Amino acid sequence: MNPTQISISSKIIDVPKKSLWTLIKKYKVLLIMTLPGLIYFFFNNYLPMVGVLIAFKNIDYAKGIWASDWVGLSNFEFLFSTEDAFIITRNTVLYNLVFIFLNITIAVSVALLLNEIRRKLASRFYQSIILIPFLLSAVILGYLAYSFLSIEYGFINKLILEPLGINAISWYSEPKYWPFILVIVNTWKSVGYYSVIYLAAIMGINSEYYEAAKLDGAGRWQQMKSITIPLITPVIMIMFLLQVGGVFYADFGLFYQVTLNSGAILSTTNVIDTYVYRALLQMGNVGMASAAGLYQSVLGFLLIYGTNYIVSKVNDENALF
Amino acid sequence: MKTNLFNMQWLLHLIFIMYIAVTLVPLLLVFMVSITDERTLTLKGYSLFPEKLSFTSYNYLFNDSFVILNAYGVTIAVTVIGTLVGLLLTALFAYPISRKDFPFRKWLTLYIFITLLFNGGLVPWYLVYTNLLGINNSLVSLIVPGLLLNAFNIIIMRTFFTTTSPPALIECAQIDGAGEFRIFFQIILRLSLPVMATIGLFYTLAYWNSWFNSLIFISDREKYTLQYLLNKILLDINFILNSPGNTSQSRLLSLVPTETVRMAMAVIGTGPIILAYPFFQKYIIQGMTIGAVKG
Fold this sequence. Notes:
The complex is a heterodimer.
Chain A: H1 2-14, H2 20-26, H3 28-51, E1 57-58, E2 69-70, H4 74-81, H5 84-116, H6 120-130, H7 132-135, H8 138-149, H9 155-161, H10 178-203, H11 207-215, H12 220-245, H13 252-258, H14 266-269, H15 272-282, H16 286-314
Helix pairs in contact in A: 4-16, 5-10, 5-12, 8-13, 12-16, 15-16
Chain B: H1 2-34, H2 38-44, H3 56-64, H4 66-98, H5 105-117, H6 122-132, H7 140-143, H8 151-164, H9 167-175, H10 180-191, H11 193-208, H12 212-217, H13 226-235, H14 238-241, H15 258-292
Helix pairs in contact in B: 1-15, 3-15, 4-8, 4-11, 5-8, 11-15, 13-15
């Protein structure tokens, strides 16, 4: 019934080829509704997209941004002549890959386990609690980490290391511990959020599948393996793609707040986003900052496009666009 | 068989009780530190079970610190205005692109979808707002840049509108002579209260937790949001102790419980959200569920 209806109504709209102007006039009220959004995205998203071109300029505020001289690739030459370009790319990508791996494996496991809990009230209670970290700002994450890592009074130094007779560690100036700290903090923060999403996907599975499986004598484990996991794979794929597409974008809040912006640990905590921020606002080096920003945007775009292309080749239904 | 299942359930509950402990202990630690006696703290460090309790840090914060009340005010104003305006503009954009008869639907959806894929980065974005529009160091810069609208919320709302507002209903209203704005405000919005609540909560959370805009746009300390003030204080406790508006007494550093004041700040910065959470969690989970299903 529906398909015919749609095709008929679309014929009514399309066949007497109306000019763009009459369509605009006919739908002017709906268009006016979208106007604030159009303007907002124009300034907030589209102008900055064109603005990436300033990476090829030597910004001189006295001349104005667009009147500044074009300098070709020299900002990029400068950026890649330092060791920083390699370090920030390495850190950004490696952290994100570890985050993605843990976010998927742990969160899917948590969701599967939550789904096995018989008492629905208990399962709902657990769900609410594990979502709490999602509500906290990065600043509060910084506080929570600090309460464990503070050099003089922190929980770890004072209550764990001191009784064991180990010297206090000055966490905020020792780069080698930070890969572990940041992975732990990020896992603490994100797993609950992703678990709830996967659990929602599991709840959406038609219960008839399970009933049929039970009739055939399948146990809980077999049901999980042959029904639940295959049926939530599309959702896992979407979450995976969204995260892989963002491999060159780091969570600025995590890397800026949890590290307390400490300079001594930059070798393991500096990522592209924090680098761009520091170059722009702390060192005032617009050229370098915009070069790093464009480098990030281009890599990020290619990656999203590439992963989506591969996925659409393998299985069109799982592709994002 | 039955005993086996029974044990399995116990094991599951045990796992989740441990998980919950891991989630709550850091929060509890911060709270306990905030009510620890400062001297006990200097001797024994941060502890979940302090020997001596004291509420002087809260006393200090509420009585002596003008800066904190001010930041609270800024955050509340930004959150209320941002949520209301953001919600309205999101719905205004989502409604037309949910209408199957609207010929510009595809183009407008693409227009917002592209913003999810490509991103100009911090520098040009910053320059648009500071150099071109010149709104830095104003309350507008706390509300508009990056926060006021986003494609995800619009897509969630569009998905909701397409399912709750059937074309027949809209046609009926049109035949009865209702204009588009009237249909939108009197029919669509009223039918969509759950999604409005969900997106409204996302906005409230985002604005309440916002600090990034203060970090890059704001230079006057009386315009700092609460979270950014918290950030400043974590980096340097003296920031709050030396602020103007403090009574001269508390400026004597020795009298102020610095470590516990810090943690008390964190508690009053998240407290409202944690306290309100039981009442709104249903909507948050709902929104995440709609968002996860491909829009």
